[in-house]
Amino acid sequence: MNKLFFFSIIILLIGCSLKPKTVLICGDHVCVNKKEAKMYFEENLSLEVKIINTKEKNKIDLVKLNLDNSNNKKKIYIQKKDTTESKIKDLTLNEINTIKTEVKKKEKQKKLNNKVKKNRNLSKNNRIEKKNKEKC
Q1: Is residue 131 part of a domain?
Q2: How many CB atoms are closer than 10 A to CB 109?
Q3: Cβ atoms of residues 100 and 92 within 8 Å
Q4: Residue 86 CB contacts under 8 Å (≥ 6 apart), including other chains
Q5: 23, 49 in Cβ contact below 8 A?
């Protein structure tokens, strides 16, 4: 009985822990890596997430269509509608490499800016401390 209970709990946990595969979209293309997605989000404050569901494909329920059509003798028109309004561009290797280098440059620039800001804050704090010492 205990083995059955533990087995059912394990199966339940495994079934609940599976999450669908997602892809982050940066503008008109799929993000190359998480760093690019983070940089894109910081600049635009928006990021699209596309869920890729490989298990479930668009299935047409023919039984339901036949039952609905048997009474009215109407023609069936099936149109596939894309869920995303814009087309997602496929990147070439050269484009991927250029995006990676741009992200690296932006990260280096951001680190340099942070260091400059820290140095400015330290120099301001030192000036304030010197003024306070002079007053005392």
Answers
A1: yes
A2: 10
A3: no
A4: 28
A5: yes
Q: Does the residue 17 lie in any domain?
A: no
Structurally, how many domains does the chain consist of? 1
Domain that holds residue 129: 92-136
Residue pLDDT tens, the chain, 136 long: 788 888 888 888 887 777 778 888 888 888 888 999 888 888 888 888 888 776 666 667 777 766 665 555 556 555 555 565 667 888 889 999 999 999 999 999 988 888 888 888 777 777 777 777 776 6
- Report the predicted TM-score, pTM, of the whole model to 2 decimal places: 0.51
Structure tokens at 35: 């760093």
For the chain, the first-to-last Cα distance in angstroms comes to 80
Distance CA 25, CA 37 (A): 8
Which amino acid belongs to residue 79? Q
Count of all residues that appear for the chain in the document: 136
Is 47 within 8 Å of 26 (Cβ atoms)? yes
**Contacting residues for 107 by C-beta, under 8 A, at least 6 apart:** 35, 39
- The first and second tokens of residue 88, run together, are 């997602």
57 domain-assigned: no
In a domain, 104, yes or no: yes
